[in-house]
Amino acid sequence: MLVYIFMFIYLTFLAFLSLYFEDKKSELNFFIFPTFILFLVIDGFRKSSVGSDLHVYVSLFEQNALKLPEFSKIFKSRFESGFILSNQMIRSITNQYTVLLLIYASITLLIWFYVLSKYSKNVYISLIIYFCSLGMFLYSLSNIRQGLAVAIGFLGFYFLFEKKNIRGILCILLAPFFHSSGVICILFLFLRNVRLNYKHYSILFLSTLALLPFTKILFATIISVFPQYVSYLGSSWFIESNKWAPVLLTILYGLIFVFGELVMKNQLLTKRDEAIKTLFFINLILTMTTLQTALLERFVFYISPIVTLYIPMVLYKITEKKLRWILFYVTVIIYFVILLVFIYFKPEWYQIVPYRSVITDWLIGN
């Protein structure tokens, strides 16, 4: 638990410095690389007990049990071909699962740090959100293949917006090869140029409320294509373990969006700002659907990285410094509470505590 607390304090300190010394952003970027190393050490050198699903991946890797299915059964396979092939390639080199984790962690984190360093108004605030949020860093400690798929989708969004269409499309096509839920990244192709106004927001919000009771029925067809995820349709550990959790998360994102609209109402927004705002609203809508089924919870993870860009953008747009500082501290407090939920109040969600590292075992000779 102390590892996560230390990391949060470290990121908060850097976020404070970057907000206080806004005119020295380039100098403070020096800390991005050591921060990346800290993330990599936590992620890549953890033991197989850190993460609820990790022991399954480690067992499959050590036993070299993953084999490519026949083409006719590819959509019924529990594991995607990209994940299987990468496992086989790494397993042909070594049987040490730490190498598997280190490679997956390196690729996932490199993508996150690359996109955040390019697009975030405050990369350290973004990293606080990434570190503490549902479906992001802590989640990837458990589900390494979806963690990588989410990162690849995020990179696809970046390339598409930069008009590097071939790279963007390749990333979007690659994401489902590590987790089939990555097909939702196709939305980035259509949403990158979408601009919504208040009328659109109202229609989408009210339509979602009206359709919410029928969510399971609407998405039953998706499960018929990917039967390995049928369990996600019927229930959600996130809902069952705390029925108020998705409600509070929806309310939080709703308040953030409304406040962001008030801040940016009379400001000139760039095309990037508009895209980030639109995707944040889509994230809010999808988060609402998690009240009904865990299937949508899996999909929302691919849109939720936009939160790491939206909140720093809103803070950056606030011209009154006192208000900006107040909201900075509110943001820090909120995400610290979320972190405490994962590591103290509801540790069974991700099962990432107690944290154990193979480095410790190496040092004491185990």
What this model shows, in words?
The chain is mostly helical and 366 residues long. 69% of the residues lie in helices and 0% in strands. It has helices at 2-20, 25-28, 32-44, 54-62, 81-91, 97-119, 123-132, 137-140, 144-161, 165-174, 187-191, 198-211, 215-218, 220-225, 230-234, 237-241, 245-264, 271-289, 294-303, 307-317, 321-345, 358-364.
A few lines on this structure:
The protein has 366 residues and is an all-alpha fold. It is built from 22 helices and no strands.
From the structure above, extract its key features:
single chain; 366 residues; mainly alpha; 69% helix; 0% strand; globular
User: Outline, from the CA principal axes?
Assistant: globular
User: How widely separated are the two ends?
Assistant: 22 Å
Number of helices: 22
Strand content: under 5%
Q: Major beta sheet, specifics?
A: none
Q: In which range does the helix fraction lie?
A: 55-70%
Order of helices and strands: HHHHHHHHHHHHHHHHHHHHHH
Radius of gyration: 20 Å
Strand-pairing-aware structural class: mainly alpha
Mean pLDDT: 87
pLDDT < 50 stretches? 235-239
Number of strands: 0
